[in-house]
Amino acid sequence: MTVRPTPSHNPPAEPATTGPATAGSTDAPAPTEPAITPDLSSRDPNWWRQAVIYQVYPRSFADADGDGLGDLRGLTRRLAHLATLGVDAVWLSPFYPSELADGGYDVADYRDVDPRLGTLEDFDVMVAEAHRLGLKVLVDLVPNHSSHQHVWFQEALRAGPGSPARDRYVFRDGRGRGGELPPSDWHSVFGGSAWQRVPDGQWYLHLFAPEQPDLNWDNEEVRDDFRTTLRFWADRGVDGFRVDVAHALTKDLTEPLRDLGDLAAGGDEALEGMAPGEHPLYDRDEVHEIYRDWRKILDSYSPPRMAVAEAWVPGERRVLYARPDELGQAFNFEYLRTPWDAEELREVITSALEQARAAGASATWVLSNHDVIRHATRLALPPGTDPDAWLLSGGREPAVDAALGLRRARASTLLMLALPGCAYLYQGEELGLPEVADLPADVLRDPIWEQTGHARKGRDGCRVPLPWTRGGADFGFGFASADGTPWLPQPEWFSELSVEAQDGVDGSALELYRAALRVRRGLLSADESLTWLDGAAPGVLHFSRPGGWQVVANTGPTPVPLPTGRTLLASGPLDGGGTVLPPDTTVWLKA
Ligand code: NOJ
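Above: the input record for the complex with 1-deoxynojirimycin. Below: its predicted structure, written as tokens.
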């Protein structure tokens, strides 16, 4: 069966160069000399359709001034790593002024840089260097909520009930005789009530932390300000935007507010209990007007700026955000949530491609990000493991087979990179980093920890600063010699997973990623189709891509014979002199 999404208009031009026949690459570009990424044409309006985009969590990537917090100048100095890796673009999680109540997703000023991370000039230098290296730059836009330190919220607190300043947020009187009860039973995604009371007795809505008041998207001033923000960054040369919680901006706030009962606990699970468009908080039909409006702004640039929605909604609704007259792309989190199981993967891949095609969008794939347990660990957790309970046990119950996790992570990455569409990588996955599950309670920074009364540890374990070198107090995270204790402690075993330890090492995760991105670049064509091939053994995925590229992934427990063809790349050693595919291994073949 062939799944054929809408073809992109401008095919990448480079012919195939093939990789080695064994695990990883032996002839990756030298680390000191970044391969200047072949320009898929910097003016190609569709460059993002089949791109590989690398997420940087700036506070954990590289620290130029040695204060323990990653910064923009640190990123600029490490951009060569990304060019050598072979990605097309870098997406930066928020670097704006923020008290870091939610790792920067609490933005105090949408059009500036946090002084601890640099200046707007540092940002411009970073963009210029990225562009020089052939890398595009995406920034994160956080429109659902601001920080409570934003001037607007401070003004709203001072201005009092009924004021225009309060109308930029969602303020309501409470229930009960003295208004001492929250206006509705809605829960924050991070735990607890979604309402916080202010000294004059009113309550404000926060779908996330209390430090993140929700903005009122019925207010024209709010809409206008975000138009200004889009232009501000697009004028500075950014190539695209990742839109945070894209599905929550518009809400049904008609009085009386609708209690949600069992569905109040928030998050995307709540959507499953309701008809599409019916939930008062998420995925309302009217949210799409906002993105149609933004698309006009994004298209007023040359080339048009791309955008990707973070929308935790079911696939057929998710792709609506990715329509060509809206954002163009939406993260496909169903793929991330799918276990390492051929049958389930095939189903999710097939429906994601069909949904993308129907919407005229490109498909997206992601295995790790700053919100989930890293896939080198997740894929080794026994089915049914409760991730929160596992993290609370310090990653000990159940014990995780790290070698199995890494094998599966490598195999699933090679599978992902062979799928039609755009792949998103998360910093450190190219090193095969597992989750740091045993962070002690006193270092945790994720608001989830406090807001759930210590029932959930949260997401710090995937945000630990990267290891660049084998040695040094912070494994090369900081450049300066100052006492830069990283903002989250790094485990000793980071040494052997550092960039330095893997660079040029045949079979390392880093060399596998480099080889995969190089070989993929040579194999891609404008044709975004995939054909499932018949006769695959149980537990095995087998498909072809245009140009004779075949992919076989073995998710089962039994080795299987490989079809005939020249092996381009394998995620691990093959058996039988290269004729047998072991469990938890993916191979790319040229038929
Ligand atoms: C999604 C972001 O990825 C996450 O890190 C953040 O906590 C929430 N949105 C709230 O902004």
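Notes for the reader.
The first helix runs from residue 72 to 85.
The chain is about 25% helix and 15% strand.
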